[in-house]
């Protein structure tokens, strides 16, 4: 009997399968077929295997549920929203409207290990925000009713108040699965930055230690978010918040921060050195004579010819031989009239390689403050108070400089809000010529009726975020055109930067998913029949196409070309690596011609073979005979 065509798995990546695979690679001996022999694993680990019940770590009621939620695959999809996108055909930036848990699950296949930097600014659990409630096996349903895709109008969840009794647990329940799934998306040299304040910083640190590993903790940055305390502050005025930094592994290498204008202004050329501007630096080290006896030696003063010694508590910075080189190369500065007691070292601007090593203290003068962020957003959006807590662009640019110093990186923010990071990516690319791409995820959280933002026409925060990106794109393109004009160029040079984005929306799958439940009327045959005709009849080809791309592990921004093969429409992805045909009434001619192109993979609709069992039987063989081993139906 000929083999039947395998079905494409429409569920998101199975997390438990993937974890098991990692374990199998390390300990193949503990596997018997597909099950893990825990006793053997304990023996393999020997003395390191812990058997006691009490152990160190954060636990809360509901933690076990987090693992069930992580493992439950998503049966949703991301539907393209071309109309609200900019430069759909060429852009590689993404905006996804939806709950981030479901979306992170859907992105696992396509973006596993691809993201260089994640920044998130989640709800801080102040008691004033709602904390998204995930329900095991109903996470998509929760979202659909929340976003008004099931009920007529979207609904608002109540806020998580301290009186709820599960104040911290609710927040941890929400954060744990999202951070777990987000980690999978990071490259091995990737990094995550998380904004947080005193409400949850201690709990966040604990779960990050658990998910990312304590050894991958990089720093806790203290950012001065205000320039002055409020006069009505009760107690001790809070002026700062934190940014927790964890790397995916030890492969992460932080970038440098650029020197500020003030720092660069320190470089001058007091002695008209032909090598250009320089700034003077200390010629003494921070070591004592006892610690570095060889660095304690006399040098000659060029004016007096007398011996000059370093202090015993701070010897010279360089060895005797290196000092001779410095003298020969005229790198010592003895003051305008050679009247300094000891020399200083000339550091030339032209020789500056890297920027500044970032520290954990970020004053508002360097990283911006809350008021500046609000003002900046209001100016761009043409309305006051559109969003209550955006982050300043200056702050986010610094994070990008540390997290994405190399050429092209994907940056993800799954609590997008007003999309400051997308804006910062576009601006910084323009400034430093790098090629970062963003992925933003944001819930369509309703904006309060009667608020200024609502009056300005924004119904929910996702709409606001998208509009901000569109306005930022417009502003940057206009600035580029203007600067080209000022340079008196005859024509505006081609803009290489990616100034666009593709917009998608979280939605239920285009395919009816067999849920195994017996219908109330007991007519299982009818349900099976429905499943064979498994497409929702309102789905468009484009919606189905992007679901198949996502579930086959392709990036949502991959270029797709449409071809006519044997009179039927076929989508070619990644130069024929994947061919997708969504036509009904498939023909032998089409199957043969698709096979002759020799794609690595091919997908057709199962319904396309309806009434043609002969072709269904032969199609797999035709594909195989041309070396197409991955042929599936949906
Ligand atoms: C503090 S704001 C982020 C602000 C952002 N950094 C900015 O500069 O505009 C957090 C955002 O996360 C969103 N959010 C909360 N739960 C979410 C979820 N489950 N999925 C997606 N977004 C969510 C909220 O709607 C809110 O807009």
Characterise this structure:
It is a single chain. By secondary structure, the chain is of the alpha/beta class. The protein folds into three domains: 71-258 and 356-504, Rossmann fold; 261-351, no CATH class; 512-633, no CATH class. Helices cover 32% and strands 16% of the residues. Helix 3 (63-71) runs parallel beside helix 6. The site of S-adenosylmethionine has 18 residues, from strand 16.
Quick rundown:
By secondary structure, this protein is α/β, with parallel strands linked by helices.
CATH level-3 fold name of the largest domain: Rossmann fold
Bound molecules: S-adenosylmethionine
Average pLDDT works out at 90
CATH class of the largest domain: Alpha Beta
Please tally the helical runs, counting DSSP H or I stretches of 4 or more residues.
Answer: 19
Chain oligomer state:
single chain
The secondary-structure class comes to: alpha/beta
Instruction: Report the sheet-strand fraction.
Output: 15-25%
Number of separate domains? 3
- Largest sheet: spatial strand order: 3-17-4-16-15-5-6-8-7-14
At the fourth CATH level, what is the homologous superfamily of the largest domain? Vaccinia Virus protein VP39
Report the span from N to C terminus.
Answer: 21 Å
The counted number of beta strands is 22
Uncertain residue ranges: none
Q: Helix and strand layout, with pairings?
A:
Elements: H1 15-26, E1 31-32, E2 35-36, H2 38-45, H3 63-71, E3 76-80, E4 94-97, H4 100-111, E5 115-120, H5 139-146, H6 167-185, E6 186-196, H7 201-212, E7 217-224, E8 240-247, H8 261-265, E9 278-281, E10 299-300, E11 307-308, H9 320-328, E12 332-333, E13 344-348, E14 361-362, H10 364-367, H11 370-381, H12 393-403, E15 410-413, H13 420-432, E16 437-442, H14 452-455, H15 461-486, E17 502-508, H16 524-532, H17 541-551, E18 560-565, E19 568-573, E20 578-581, H18 588-596, E21 601-604, H19 613-625, E22 630-633
Parallel strand pairs: 4-16, 4-17, 5-6, 5-15, 7-14, 15-16, 20-21, 21-22
Antiparallel strand pairs: 1-2, 3-17, 6-8, 7-8, 9-13, 10-11, 12-13, 18-19, 19-20
Helix pairs in contact: 3-6, 4-6, 6-7, 12-13, 13-15, 18-19
This protein binds S-adenosylmethionine.
């Amino acid at each position: 009997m000929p083999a039947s065509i395998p079905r494409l798995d429409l569920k998101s990546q199975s997390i438990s399968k993937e974890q098991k695979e990692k374990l199998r690679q390390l300990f193949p001996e503990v596997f018997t077929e597909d099950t893990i022999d825990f006793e053997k694993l304990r023996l393999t680990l020997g003395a390191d295997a812990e058997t006691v019940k009490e152990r160190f770590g954060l636990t809360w009621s509901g933690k076990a549920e987090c693992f069930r939620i992580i493992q439950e695959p998503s049966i949703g999809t991301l539907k393209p929203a071309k109309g609200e996108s900019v430069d759909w055909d060429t852009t590689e930036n993404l905006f996804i409207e939806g709950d981030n848990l479901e979306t992170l699950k859907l992105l696992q296949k396509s973006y596993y290990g691809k993201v260089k930097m994640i920044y998130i600014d989640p709800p801080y659990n102040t008691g004033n925000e709602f904390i998204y409630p995930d329900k095991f096996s109903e996470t998509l349903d929760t979202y659909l009713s929340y976003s008004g895709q099931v009920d007529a109008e979207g609904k608002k969840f109540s806020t998580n108040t301290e009186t709820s009794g599960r104040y911290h647990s609710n927040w941890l329940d929400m954060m744990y699965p999202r951070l777990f799934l987000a980690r999978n998306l990071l490259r091995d040299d990737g990094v995550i930055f998380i904004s947080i304040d005193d409400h949850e910083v201690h709990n966040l640190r604990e779960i990050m230690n658990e998910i990312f590993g304590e050894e991958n903790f990089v720093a806790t940055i203290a950012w001065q978010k205000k320039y002055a305390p409020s006069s009505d502050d009760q107690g001790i005025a809070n002026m700062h918040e934190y940014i927790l930094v964890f790397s995916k592994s030890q492969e992460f290498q932080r970038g440098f921060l650029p020197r500020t204008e003030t720092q660069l202004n320190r470089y001058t050329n007091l002695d008209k050195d032909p090598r250009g501007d320089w700034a003077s630096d200390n010629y003494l080290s921070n070591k004592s004579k006892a610690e570095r006896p060889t660095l304690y030696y006399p040098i000659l003063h060029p004016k007096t010819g007398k011996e000059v010694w370093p202090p015993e508590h701070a010897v010279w910075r360089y060895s005797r031989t290196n000092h001779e080189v410095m003298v020969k190369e005229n790198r010592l500065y003895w003051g305008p009239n050679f009247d300094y007691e000891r020399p200083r070292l000339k550091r030339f601007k032209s020789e500056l390689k890297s920027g500044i090593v970032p520290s954990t203290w970020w004053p508002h003068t360097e990283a911006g403050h809350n008021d500046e962020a609000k003002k900046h957003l209001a100016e761009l959006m043409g309305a006051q108070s559109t969003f209550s807590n955006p982050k300043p662009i200056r702050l986010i640019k610094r994070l990008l400089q540390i997290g994405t110093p190399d050429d092209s990186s994907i940056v993800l923010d799954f609590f997008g809000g007003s999309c400051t990071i997308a804006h910062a990516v576009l601006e910084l690319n323009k400034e430093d010529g790098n090629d970062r791409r963003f992925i933003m995820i944001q819930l369509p959280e309703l904006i309060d009726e009667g608020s200024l933002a609502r009056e300005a026409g924004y119904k929910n925060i996702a709409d606001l975020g998208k509009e901000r990106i569109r306005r930022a794109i417009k502003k940057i393109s206009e600035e580029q055109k203007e600067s080209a004009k000022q340079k008196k160029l005859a024509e505006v040079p081609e803009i290489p930067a990616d100034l666009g984005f593709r917009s998608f929306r979280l939605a239920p799958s285009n395919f009816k998913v067999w849920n195994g439940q017996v219908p109330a009327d007991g007519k299982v045959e009818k349900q099976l029949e429905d499943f064979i005709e498994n497409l929702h009849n309102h789905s468009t080809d484009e919606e189905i196409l992007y679901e198949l791309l996502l579930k086959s592990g392709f990036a949502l921004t991959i270029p797709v070309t449409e071809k006519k093969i044997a009179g039927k429409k076929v989508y070619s992805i990644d130069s024929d690596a994947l061919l997708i045909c969504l036509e009904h009434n498939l023909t032998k001619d089409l199957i043969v011609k698709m096979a002759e192109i020799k794609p690595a993979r091919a997908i057709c609709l199962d319904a396309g073979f309806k009434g043609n069992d002969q072709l269904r039987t032969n199609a797999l063989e035709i594909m195989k005979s041309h070396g197409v081993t991955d042929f599936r139906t949906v």
